[in-house]
Amino acid sequence: MQNNKKYIWYASYGSNLSYDRFMTYINGGKPKNSSKTEKGCKDKTPPLKNSSIKIKHALYFARHSKKWNNGGSCILSVKYDENKTTLGRKFLITQDQFLDIVSQNNGVEQTIINFDEVIKLGSKSINDSLSGNILFLGFEDKYPIFTFTSHFDETEFIRPDILYLATIGAGVKDTFNYSVQQVVDYFMQLDGIKQFYNKIDLFNQLNDMI
Fold first, then answer.
1. Percentage of the chain with pLDDT > 70?
2. What pLDDT sits at residue 1?
3. CA distance 103 to 110
4. Quick one: pLDDT band at residue 126, thresholds 50, 70, 90?
5. Torsion-angle region of 93 (φ positive above 0: left; ψ -120 to 50: alpha; else: beta)
6. In sequence order, what DSSP letters do the residues of 34-71 get, joined into one string?
7. Of 197, 208, 200, which is closest to residue 71 (Cα–Cα)?
8. Within a domain: 79
9. Ramachandran angles phi, psi of 159, nearest 5°
10. pLDDT band at residue 35, thresholds of 50, 70 and 90?
11. What pLDDT sits at residue 40?
12. Is 111 among the domain residues?
């Protein structure tokens, strides 16, 4: 493998659990069901590896996502919680690719991250965007694991769009080899879903979509 100082794991917990959707952030293009066309990374090289990850931070839906019909956006709590498990997928990519992916998610032209500082602090805000907080999640195979999320935990939960849930659900199903019922059981634990969706109705909708 090339210089390991240039590689990091990017851990996704939302729609980028879908490998195909994640690759639109690498290659550019309009992801399925999304309303936004992504510009892609300058380096189009696919991730060297990808694998599942279980993140000990709560997941919930808040704010409004313009990409997903103004429904709730998927947000990872900034707080470590041994009693919570968020299902994710991590991709081994270059630091520069991660910077480009963060820029696309935050709607900015350029992102600068001091990765050593994020590791030291555990998290660091880099801009005022919804996903402008970089979170360090540990190491695997000597490579640091990073993701991005909100700066603080929201208190008002917002119902996510069903197309958004279908995209996340398809990624969970593929990454963890889950059944649709297992995906629904996972979703129904999450704030923003359990308050606004009926379990049977959600199963019936997702069973036709993922």
1. 96
2. 46
3. 6
4. confident
5. beta
6. -S--B---S--PPPS-EEEEEESEEEEEEEEEGGGTTE
7. 197
8. yes
9. -65, 120
10. low
11. 92
12. yes
Overall average pLDDT of the 135-154 stretch: 94
Residue 76 CA to residue 78 CA, distance in Å, equals 6
Structural domain that includes position 102:
4-158
Most confident of 21-30, 113-122, 126-135: 113-122
Cα–Cα nearest to 119, from 145, 141, 100: 145
Answer whether residue 195 shows pLDDT above 70: yes
Domain count, the chain: 1
> Domain with 42 in it: what CATH number?
3.10.490
Residue 62 lies in a domain: yes
Dihedral, 121, 127, 133, 136 alpha carbons, nearest 10: -50
Instruction: Tell whether 206 is covered by a domain.
Output: no
| Residue 82 DSSP code | T
